[in-house]
Each structure stands twice: as C-alpha cells, then as structure tokens.
Specification:
The protein contains ten helices and eight strands. It is α/β, with parallel strands linked by helices. Helix 1 (16-29) crosses helix 10 (224-235) and helix 4 packs parallel to helix 5 (125-131). The protein is globular and about 55 Å long. The chain starts with a strand and ends in a 10-residue tail after the last helix.
Length: 245
C-alpha cells in the first residue's frame, strides 16, 4: 500500500480518530516512523487525544502561509518515539485547498514511513482536501444502516478521485448487540452493503475510548490493541488471517 493513508468515515461518531491513533501506535511497533495529520479543520481533536493540546503553536495553515517552517508545524509525541503530529487549522476559514494540502504532504512524506491523515466525517470540502494526497484509504464504519450508507458514499467519492486501494474497518463491533438488533443477517451482509473489502474488525472496547478522552495514546493494556497490530501488519503487506465469522 502507498505510504499516505487517509482514514475517512461517512458519518461522525464511528471512532475514526481513535482508529488513526491506534493504527499509528501499532505501526511504531513494527519500527515505522509515522506522521499523523489532523485534517478536520475547525473541529480538530487529535491534539487532545494525544495529550498535545498545550504543545501546539503552529498548524498546517501556518506552515503553508509562512508563519513557520513545515518542520516547526510537526511535533514529536512525547510518549511514543517515532510518532509525529501536525494539527489542523483551529479556525474553519483557514482550511487548505486540496492542491495546497497535497503539496504540503508531498514535501514531508519522504521523511516518514507512513503518513496517516484523519479526515473530517462526510464527503465535504474537508474530506476532499484530506483524501487528495492519498492513494490508500481506510473507511471506518459501524455495523448499522446509517453508518453504512455514509460508507458507500465515501467509497464512491474516493473512487471518483482515483483512489483504488480502499479497505473497510468495522469499528466498535459488539456481536451480541449486532445479533439483537438484527439489521443484517451476518457480517458478510455488512461487507456486501459497504461494497468494500474488509481489512479489520475492531470490537467495542470502552477502555480504549476512555483512555483516549483522557489524553493518552495508551490503551496498550486493551486486548483490542492486538487487533490494531494485525491491521498494521496487513497494511505492511503481511499475510495475517482475518477472522470475523
């Protein structure tokens, strides 16, 4: 897979940002150097989830406007050697155009093994900007109808943008609740509706959500981190069985 990955979702609340962080941490375990870019202009939250809110002086818009160098807008994460972060503009009016953001990513991608871009939910202008530099996309969805409708819209838009490597991450999956609600017969139905090849099934884990909102990338004690390790391995091209039956 290409080393610039956009992580997208059709609707908010799927856990997309948590997937971005946990995937980044898992890639570090494989010895990879990762730049995580928040592209949710005006609604940024990764700095809080990474416990870096007070560290950020410059964001992506500062780097392209000349208020700082690109290097000054990239911050190393104190708790994870090899993880770096670039914040989204704090104000929506400073949203970057797709062309400018692509140039920005192209100027830094050679310094990292992977660049992971956290896209805003939906398929608006911020999504187009976030996806423009990528040739690989992960669509994060929950196993319920409104989330999957958004997933299909995102996939269609990504395909129109020429992105061919598109994979599905089903997040916050609770097998008992899935059966009780009865929206779909089984996970094969969910995958068919999404029209996207599955790359990871992430179980619901309240521990990870709680840890993230406290501003920690920890979550390492959670069994779910093993699933993210498998996701990272598949992205690296390793043959890791995907069991979801």
């Amino acid at each position: 897979m290409n080393n610039v990955i956009v992580v997208a979702s059709g609707k908010g609340g799927t856990g997309k940002s948590t997937v971005c962080i946990c995937l980044s941490v898992s890639l570090l375990k494989h010895g990879k150097r990762v730049l995580l870019i928040d592209c949710d202009c005006g609604m940024r939250g990764l700095d809080i989830m990474l416990d870096m809110e007070r560290d950020i002086l410059f964001d992506a818009s500062d780097a392209v406007c000349g208020n700082c160098t690109i290097q000054e807008a990239v911050y190393p994460h104190r708790g994870d050697d090899g993880l770096f972060f670039m914040a989204a503009p704090f104000d929506a009016e400073n949203e970057l155009s797709p062309e400018v953001f692509t140039q920005l990513v192209e100027s830094v991608r050679k310094d990292y093994d992977y660049v992971i871009i956290d896209s805003p939910a939906g398929i608006g202008s911020g999504f187009v900007t976030a996806a423009s530099p990528a040739s690989t996309a992960l669509i994060v969805t929950n196993a319920e109808p409104t989330s999957l409708r958004g997933c299909v819209k995102v996939r269609q838009k990504l395909s129109l943008m020429g992105i061919e490597q598109i994979r599905l991450v089903i997040n916050r999956f609770d097998r008992k609740m899935f059966s009780r609600l009865g929206f779909y017969r089984d996970l094969d139905d969910v995958i068919d509706v999404s029209q996207t090849q599955l790359i990871a099934l992430i179980p619901f884990d309240i521990g990870i959500s709680a840890v993230m909102q406290k501003g920690l990338t920890g979550g390492r004690a959670s069994a779910s981190m093993e699933i993210f390790d498998g996701l990272a391995g598949r992205i690296l091209g390793r043959q890791i069985p995907l069991i979801y039956k």
